[in-house]
Amino acid sequence: GNSVTQMEGPVTLSEEAFLTINCTYTATGYPSLFWYVQYPGEGLQLLLKATKADDKGSNKGFEATYRKETTSFHLEKGSVQVSDSAVYFCAPFVGGYNKLIFGAGTRLAVHP
Amino acid sequence: DTGVSQDPRHKITKRGQNVTFRCDPISEHNRLYWYRQTLGQGPEFLTYFQNEAQLEKSRLLSDRFSAERPKGSFSTLEIQRTEQGDSAMYLCASSFGSGDYNEQFFGPGTRLTVL
Question: What percentage of residues in chain A have a pLDDT greater than 70?
Answer without folding.
Answer: 96
